[in-house]
Amino acid sequence: MKISKLEEQSIRLAVALARQGEQMTLSELSAEERLSEALIAKIMGRLRQGGIIRAARGRSGGYELVAPPDELTVAAVIRALGRPLFNGCYTKASEPCPHESDCTLKPIWEYLQSAVAHTLDQITLSDLVKKERYVRDRMAFLHTGSAPVS
After folding, report:
1. From CA 86, how far away is CA 5, in angstroms rounded?
2. Is residue 23 part of a domain?
């Protein structure tokens, strides 16, 4: 699985909104994430269309999350961009797979797709607002089912 630059920037912008807890302007987001306002506007448009954020125009305008950060997951942000969470197969949707009738790799890709979706559906924007150590512990818990020993 490879996270694209767009996906990572989208997640970071959503986390910035979660951290702020209120509406932010393009210039505030630009300063926070060190990205151009034009790029942020493009990403925010995609996140708005995907149902992650809402935009208010005008003098007191800006962007905000449509739901509390503990209800929005990393998977939801990526899905809002219209992208799959994981795609192990190299073939394009327009091309038939030459191994479709008997693919020994297909069960592996399906398992990984399920594992990636399950993991990303468990990590909320609220989790990502916390310190790195918390996120590492959260990931360890998701992997093992028990809290790590510090």
Report:
1. 15
2. yes
DSSP letter for each residue of 85-123: S-----S-TTS--TTTTS-SSHHHHHHHHHHHHHHHHH-
| pTM of the predicted protein model | 0.83
Per-residue pLDDT tens digits for 69-95: 999 999 999 999 987 777 767 666 667
Q: What is the CATH number of the domain that holds 132?
A: 1.10.10.10
Domain tally, the chain: 1
150 inside domain: no
Tokens of 125: 């924007």
Adjacent-strand bridge partners of 54:
64
* Average pLDDT estimate for 88-116: 78
Domain of residue 44, residue span = 5-144
Q: Is 149 part of any domain?
A: no
- Among 69, 68, 62, smallest CA distance to 29 is for 62
